[in-house]
Amino acid sequence: MSPSKQVSPKPLCLITGVGDATGTALVKRFVAGGYRVAMIARNGERLNAIAEEVKETHAYVCDVGDLKALSETLKTIRAELGPATVLIHNAVAHTFDTFLDADPEKLEKNFRVNTTALLHLARDVAPNMIEAGHGAIIATGNTASHRGVANYALFAPTKAAQRILAQSMARDLGPKGVHVAYVTIDAPIDVAWLGPMEERPDWLVPPKDWPWPHEDFFAKPPAIANEVYHIAHQDRSTWSFDHTIRPFAEKW
Which residue range is the domain that position 237 belongs to? Predict the structure, then answer.
């Protein structure tokens, strides 16, 4: 963006982890709600394609696990687009293996993307939100943030830490007018890259006795985006923090 170009009066939403499912759905929902959106992800080709398709979107290629690059990207976004009114940390790094089999270095990588990046993002946007007296910081998560299972040994601790960090921020920022929330998505998300149903692992397909259509087993990205948008705009007298969403037939 040219320095001489006037910044739009529309509020800015900053979204990390803009992939081809939930991230893209979040971008489209917030644009539909009257926002400009700064998109952060590693895949520049995808970001540029979204920027071409959806007005009021701006692409910033960055691996949020590279904290120095993230800091520089946030400076660029602020200079070009101004301060963010909403931050959604949707980027995720994961490892699916047991603690004996997984590479311990993966824990550090997952922690940087899932937790430390959230800290850096929040520290960047929160001061302006506090000054304005309003704003929203939302992290998307899953049930790994609430419990550990054997093959999530290097993933669940980082998501649990992410959730507790968000809770600490919520207690600090809430009285200052800034809403912090954590959205737990208790469901597989149906994305194209998972491939045909018959080629997916058992934990990503409905059980054989599933009596509903296969698509009902999955959370739909646009529906997730609608929930996140709603949370970002809750009345301050009824703010939520732990917000769990799941398909109607999910066992829990």
Answer: 12-244
Q: pLDDT per residue over 77-112, tens digit each?
A: 999 999 999 999 999 999 999 999 999 999 999 999
Cα–Cα distance measured from residue 155 to residue 115, given in angstroms and rounded to the nearest whole number: 11
Residue 3 lies in a domain: no
For the domain that residue 113 is a member of, what is the CATH number?
A: 3.40.50.720
Asked if 125 and 137 touch (Cβ cutoff 8 Å), the reply is yes
163 touches 145 (CB < 8 A)? yes
What per-residue string of b and e applies to 53-74 under the rule 16 or more CB within 10 Å gives b?
Answer: eeebbbbbbbbbbeeeebeebb
> Rounded mean pLDDT of 100-125?
97
The total number of structural domains in the chain stands at 1
- Spatial distance between the Cα atoms of 241 and 33, rounded to a whole number of angstroms: 22
Length in residues, the chain: 252
Q: Where are the alpha helices (DSSP H) in 16-99?
A: 22-32, 44-53, 67-81
The amino acid at 2: S
- Name residues whose C-beta falls within 8 Å of residue 191's C-beta, 6 or more positions apart in sequence: 19, 20, 21, 221
Q: Copy the structure tokens of residue 157.
A: 């601790």
Cα gap 168→39, rounded to integer Å: 26
Tracing tokens 């992800």 back to the chain, one arrives at 41
Residue position matching structure tokens 């194209």: 192
> How many CB atoms lie under 10 A from the CB of residue 237?
5
